[in-house]
Design brief:
Blueprint: E1 4-7, H1 8-37, H2 46-70, E2 72-75, E3 91-96, E4 102-108, E5 119-121, H3 125-130, E6 138-143, E7 146-156
Parallel strand pairs: 1-2, 4-5
Antiparallel strand pairs: 3-4, 3-7, 6-7
Helix pairs in contact: 1-2
Length: about 160
């Protein structure tokens, strides 16, 4: 399986979620299953079936996170020598040359992307256009609504 890029922050969030699932959620579900078993007939025991469903979901998520972390290429943008270029993990402030709207995005891995929080996937059209560019460069992004031009105002490695 190919290595998937992940920021240090993204990897830490996955590790925190994994720890929570293993130390809090899993024991709580096991206790709920044990309690539901004490109520007798398991065939018609809704509490038991709900707890087993929760257990299945939690164990699936644990496996998913462990898989992501084992296949992650964790990149610390602070340790990179990017020479002022946009790279994976960089935070970029850009201006839409048509509307003059200014937005800031951090370029992250696919699993970390959240447009509402200003994190865009490295595979997105905007990120692909920005990678390798420098401050004051103008990039053209082929978007579904037509081509857009953006000017890079600043690049930070935080």
């Amino acid at each position: 399986m190919n290595k998937v890029p992940l920021t240090v922050n993204g990897a830490n969030k996955l590790r925190e979620e994994l720890e929570e699932l293993k130390t809090v959620v899993r024991p709580r579900i096991i206790a709920a299953i044990a309690e539901a078993r004490e109520h007798g007939d398991l065939k018609e025991n809704a509490e038991y079936h709900a707890a087993r469903e929760q257990q299945s979901f939690a164990e699936g998520r644990i496996a998913e996170i462990e898989g992501k972390l084992s296949n992650a290429n964790i990149i610390d943008v602070k340790q990179m020598d990017a020479n002022g270029k946009v790279v994976f993990g960089a935070t970029v402030e850009i201006e839409d040359l048509d509307s003059e709207n200014v937005v800031t995005y951090q370029i992250v891995g696919e699993d970390e992307a959240n447009i509402k929080e200003g994190r865009i996937s490295v595979g997105s059209p905007i990120a692909r256009a920005l990678i390798g560019k420098e401050v004051e460069d103008v990039v053209e992004v082929k978007a579904p609504g037509g081509n857009k031009e953006y000017e890079i105002l600043s690049i930070e490695y935080i």
